[in-house]
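User: New here, please read:
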Amino acid sequence: MIYGRLWLVVKPTVGIPLLLGAVAVGSFAVHTALLTNTSWVKKFLNGSAASAVVQTQSTVASVAPPTLQV
């Protein structure tokens, strides 16, 4: 373990729950920011169907592949 000496300063019974708690708080903060700053996440979580995007093809003249002229 690279940081093996860390546990000589901080007891594992304190450090591990503190580390896991920090990860949980960070994850909660990111998810809260996503919910408050975007509109599509709320719709997705509530089960709203995404609106379909309709694309129309424009008429394109078919082009013959280039031929080699020797």
The radius of gyration is 28 Å.
